[in-house]
Amino acid sequence: MRIKSIDIKNFRSYYGENNHFEFSDGLTLILGDNGDGKTTFFEALEWLFDTTSERANISNVSEMRKSKLEIGERDEVYVAMTFDHDGEKMVEKSFSITKTGHDTYSVSNASYHGYETNGIERESVDGKLLITRCYDSFIRRFSMFKGESDLSVFDNAASLKTLVDKFSDIHKFDGLVANTDSFEQKANKALLQEMKSDDKISKETKSLDLQMTRLSGEILQNKEDIKDKKDAIATFSSNLNKLEQCQETSEKYRDVQERLKTKTAKRNQLMAIIKRKDYNHCLLDEYWVLAPFGDILTEFKQKCAALSKEKRIQEKNFDKQQAAAKAKLETIKEIQGALVNGATELPWYLPNQETMEDMINDHICKVCGREAPEGSEAYNFMVHRLEEYRAHIEAKCEHDAKLKSIDEESLFKNDYITELHSLSISLSGPEESKIFGISREINDWLGLVALRKNEMKEVEDEIQDLKDEKARILIQAGNVSESLLESQFNDIKGWYEQRERASVRLSQLEDELKNNISKMEELKEQMNNLNPANSQVKILKKVHKVLEEINKAFSRAQKDNLRRFLMELEKRANEYLDKLSANDFHGTVRLIQTANDSTEIHLYSSNGTEITNPSGSQKTVMYISVLFAISDFTQEKRDEDYPLFFDAATSSFGDTKESDFYNVIDKIDKQCIIVTKDFITRGKVREEDINKLTCSVYRIKKVDGFDQTNMATIRTTINKIK
Amino acid sequence: MASITNNEKILQAVLLDEKLMEFGGYTSEDIGNIYQAMDSDNYVISTVAQIINRTSEGAAERELWKEINDYLKRNV
Q1: pLDDT grade for B2, boundaries at 50, 70 and 90
Q2: What are the tens digits of pLDDT across the range A561-587?
């Protein structure tokens, strides 16, 4: 199978339908930083290849697409792949999503279909059947690797045996060996039957056959018991070895776990501090809304003070003007009251109006006692005097009115400025201090939050480092489970004792088997030495002997074939190992057959010492070398060639090893798709390093400007670099 | 052709077994290809070739047993 292209629509961060990848026959790199969509790409493929479920899953829908759907609107989610496998084929898994309410969605129309070209016709086929036929789960298990730890599939000895069986010619012997085994038994049965019917040797034959049947049962039981004991011893030894080898790893693991727990608690604590204040509530409940009011109040106070000052200046000037006006009036009055000779005249109100009128009416001056008849000078004087009096009264009224007018005149008819000033003064002091306090409180809080966020980022970085370290430890530990690493070695004594007991029993069983086989040989010899009267027995005896020898030859050929295949596989694996780790110590791969015909991968130093605890990168390169070697064999049989997918396969590699790895894999004649964050430094692709490679390279990246807390703003874009 | 190639490989792998050669009294030169082996006068060579060829043709085990048993009874 060779993948030609993959299209993804609205699957998680792959928003929209312009998500297209094309693949060459060799290596294709898909580069992305953390969170750019590497694992999502891998999981999109896993979803496509998952033949166990066709159900639509809302969690696979792009959050961005969901957020942009209108109520009632529908769109589809799919992952599609075109590939060559005995002609061009296509498989697509899809479903529809409809927005049914403000925050509710429904999924429907789940479909899993495929197409294949049959001659010139393009036929629609069941997608599940197509994938099962062209890329079944067994093959996927050995061609899709998510992280280095997935490669530990080879830690299971049965896995390699199954692979070898599938990709070598070994299985072709299985039927032949089974047939010759059956023929040998049938020939033996026919022979025994004939011997039992021969009068001359019937009795001895029956007796020997009975003994041989019983002995065969015992031998079979011996063999089964020996196998069980060997398996048990191997299991105990393996566990004890793992425990011994992993003691240091286990301590490191528990240390990392402990630190991880502490850091996680610290992060939660910081998170709780950061989230302690709800800003929406603070706006009103804690008057944060007044925070900008401090500056406004200051400006208001300044303006009020300026206005008040201006008012006072203007009022002072006005008062001066008023005083001047009043003084002028008084001056005029004084000038009016002066006599010609400078003597002080009588007050104008003496005599008063009543006295004056009385004297005029009586025609007598009651001041001097002289008569003043009408028309006389004295009379006219008094009339004139009365007129003057009246004029004075009028002038006084006018003067008083003017004074009153001056007194009543005011520059500012309202007290607004005063009121404003009073307000300004009233807002000063504690109120002003309180408002400035809010601003300070907010600034202090935001400063604290910023500090805590920085602290949290550091803690999160530390947590990530610890997680990476934990992953490295688990890779180093191989197929040792986390629970085993967490164990405190309490079981070790019990396992040693059980292994010892099993070893003693194994020794006894092996002796019993040896003894029984020896007895069986004797019985066979006795049976063979019987001299039948019937010539047919002689013929059947020869037939049995021929088939027995042929059966043994087929069995030996089968084992020899497997041995030669494993030798060739080992040779090719070591060639890859040498290339992939050219500048690093890498040892030698050995494929070792176990008692139960499984095959285990081991790493040895050239001086013959087994490297029992290889580093994570050594182990990864070792497994990839075996994988490539197996792949070589599959490639020789074109109909069973498969692409290899790796997600973050080189996370334990150093720079040099990484460079060697890509230089080799770049030239490999095999379809290989690697999703990685290698070649990216501080968010930028190292173009110089990329340009050294000949393979296709894609850069996937989440679009800038996303909201760190909102998944609906995350979208992966695809850019073909070369 | 692929099937013939595989059959030839298996034939060589089995018949070149030293113990079987000693038992059957033949040499590597006596083997030939699968069809020559089936026609061989040596019943060990012929039996092995028949088992390989008929199994690859999909012959049933019971049917093949009868053929092989009859052949050997006639020729040993």
Answers
A1: very low
A2: 888 888 988 999 998 888 877 777 778
Which residues does A160 contact at the CB level (< 8 Å), separation at least 6?
A154, A591, A598, A599, A600, A601, A626
Query: What is the model's pTM?
Result: 0.58
A554, A636, A638: best mutation site toward chain B, by most B Cβ within 10 Å? Answer: A554
The rounded distance, in Å, linking the Cα atoms of A337 and A551 is: 166
Quick one: pLDDT at residue B3?
47
Chain B residue closest in CA terms to A188: B69
Nearest-neighbour CA in chain A from B36: distance (Å): 18
Contact B13 A557 (CB under 8 A): yes
Is the confidence at residue A340, as pLDDT, over 60?
A: no
- H helix intervals, A275-352: 279-285, 293-336
Question: pLDDT of A300-336, one tens digit each?
Answer: 889 998 998 999 999 899 889 888 888 887 776 555 5
Q: What is the mean pLDDT of residues B3-25?
A: 88
Judged by CB atoms within 8 Å, which residues 164-223 of A form the interface with B? 169, 172-173, 175-176, 178-180, 182-183, 186-187, 190
Interchain pair A546, B44: CB under 8 A? yes
Regarding an ipTM greater than 0.90, the answer is yes
Domain boundaries, chain B: 2-75
A540, A546, A547, best to mutate vs chain B, most B CBs in 10 Å? A546
Q: Which domains does chain A have, with CATH numbers?
A: 2-143+646-720 (3.40.50), 147-177+551-641 (no CATH), 205-276+429-530 (no CATH), 293-427 (no CATH)
| Cβ of residue A327 closer than 8 Å to a chain B Cβ | no
Query: What is the distance in angstroms between the Cα of A568 and the nearest Cα belonging to chain B?
Result: 16
Contacts of A592 (CB under 8 A, 6+ apart): A599, A600, A601, A602
- B contact test, residue of A172, A535, A561 with most B CBs within 10 A: A172
Of B20, B24, B52, the CB nearest to A176: B52
Task: Determine the length of chain B.
Answer: 76
Which of A543, A552, A561 faces B76 most closely, judged by CB atoms? A543
pLDDT of amino acid A595 = 62
pLDDT tens digits, residue range A266-278? 999 999 998 888 8
Cβ of A537 under 8 Å from any chain B Cβ? no
Cα–Cα distances in Å, from A287 out to A284, A290, A446? 5, 6, 16
Position A200 scores a pLDDT of 85
Helix (H) or strand (E) holding A591: strand A588-593
Average of pLDDT values for A443-450? 90
Q: What percent of chain A has pLDDT over 90?
A: 30
Least CA distance to A536: which residue of chain B? B73
CA distances to A70, A194, A214, A539, B48 from A190, rounded to whole Å, are 82, 6, 19, 11, 20
* pLDDT given at position B1: 41
- Separation CA A587–CA A618 (nearest Å): 9
Inform me whether the pLDDT recorded for A633 exceeds 80: no
Write the CA distances from A623 to A160, A471, A593, A602, integer angstroms.
Answer: 11, 17, 17, 10
In the numeric block, the tokens 């693949």 are attached to A23
User: What three-state secondary structure class fits A217?
Assistant: helix
Q: Name the closest residue on chain A to residue B5, using Cα atoms.
A: A169
